[in-house]
Amino acid sequence: MVKRTLVVASHSTLASGMAAALRFFAGDDTPVVAIDAYLDNQPVNTQIESVFKGIGDDEEIVVLTDLLSGSVNQAMFSYRTRPHTYIVTGMNLALSLALQLEPTDDYLTISRVRQLVDEARDNLVLMNDYEPEVDDDDE
Questions:
Q1: Is the pLDDT of residue 20 over 90?
Q2: What is the CATH number of the domain that holds 81?
Q3: What is the pLDDT of residue 139?
Q4: Is residue 138 in some structural domain?
Q5: CB-based burial label for 102 (10 Å; 0-12, 13-18, 19+)
Q6: Domain PTS EIIA type-4: where (predicted)?
Q7: Domain with 25 in it
Q8: Could you tell me if 15 and 34 are in contact, meaning their C-beta atoms sit under 8 angstroms apart?
Q9: Strand locations in the chain, DSSP E?
Q10: Three-state DSSP class for 46?
Q11: Residue 69: inside a domain, yes or no?
């Protein structure tokens, strides 16, 4: 079994909200860490270092950040070369849940993370353009 920790990191309290939603769906004991940046005078790099120091080298870390060009994502960027670490930006609940519920019998692969990102991207839909499929049996 692989020990996997999901780290959600954002400006303000988006990360805490995402962590709360994950616990709602996946259970209170789900291994998720929220980093709410810039709520106090603590530098985001200090918050990030604290989280990574508490996770063993053989443990898997999946990081989800809020904005591609944002300072939180930039601060995480240097950890992308850490073994068993994946950093994805533009987090959403669909991706967060998919990653959280992924089996832990082995480490994730980069191709599997890419696949989950692609599937989550499909959940971004302008509902004004959405046409639900109607089955003839629905009448």
A1: yes
A2: 3.40.50.510
A3: 57
A4: no
A5: middle
A6: 3-124
A7: 4-118
A8: yes
A9: 4-11, 32-37, 60-65, 85-89
A10: helix
A11: yes
Determine the Cα–Cα distance for residues 40 and 98; give it in Å rounded to an integer: 31
Contacts of 54 (CB under 8 A, 6+ apart): none
Domain count, the chain: 1
The radius of gyration of the chain from alpha carbons, rounded to an integer in Å, stands at 17
DSSP assignment of 2-57 equals --EEEEEEEETTHHHHHHHHHHHHH-TT--EEEEEETSSSS-HHHHHHHHHHTS-T
Is 111 part of any domain?
yes
The angle, 0 to 180 degrees and rounded to 10, between the axes of the packed helices 14-26 and 93-100 is: 50
Tell me the CA distances in angstroms from 139 to 129, 130, 132, 135, one per residue in order: 23, 20, 14, 8
Residue 138 pLDDT: 56
Residue 70 confidence (pLDDT): 96
Strands 4-11 and 32-37: parallel
- Tell me the residue type at 50: S
Residue 35 class from Cβ within 10 Å (0-12 exposed, 13-18 middle, 19+ buried)?
buried
In a domain, 124, yes or no: no
pLDDT value at position 78? 94
For residue 105, give the amino acid letter.
Answer: D
Using CA atoms, how far apart are residues 18 and 120, in angstroms rounded to an integer?
15
